[in-house]
Amino acid sequence: MTFNDRIFGVLLIALAVAYGWGASQFPEPFGGSEAIGPDTFPTLLAVVLGLCSLYLIVRPDPDHAWPWSRTGVELVIAVVVLVFYAMLLEPLGFIISTTLAVGTLCWRMGAEPLRAYLVGAVAGVVVFLLFNFALDLALPLGLLSFLEVS
Amino acid sequence: METLGFLIDGFGVALAPHNLMFALMGAFLGTLIGALPGLGPANGVAILIPLAFSLGLAPETALIMLTAVYAGAMYGGRISSILLNIPGDEPAMMTCLDGYPMAQQGKAAEALAISAIASFIGSLVATVGLILLAPVLARFALTFGPAEYFALFLLAFATLGGITGKNPVKTVVAACLGLMVATVGIDSTGVQRYTFGTLELYEGIDFIIAIVGLFAISELLFFIEERAGGGKKKMVVNKLKLSWGDIRNVLPSSIRGGILGFIAGVLPGAGASLGSFIGYTLEKKVVGKKGFFGQGDPRGVAGPEAGNNGASSGALVPMLTLGVPGSGTTAVLLALLISLNITPGPLMFTQNADIVWGVIAALLIGNFLLLILNIPLVGIFVKLLSVPPMYLLPCVTMIAFVGIYSISNTTFDLYFMVAFGIAGYVLRKLEIPLVPVILGLLLGPEMEKNLSHAMDISDGDWTILWNSGLAIGLWVFAGVGLILPYIVGPILRRRMKVDAAATAGNPEGD
Question: What sections of the protein cross the membrane (chain A) (predicted)?
Answer without folding.
Answer: 41-58, 65-86, 92-109, 116-135
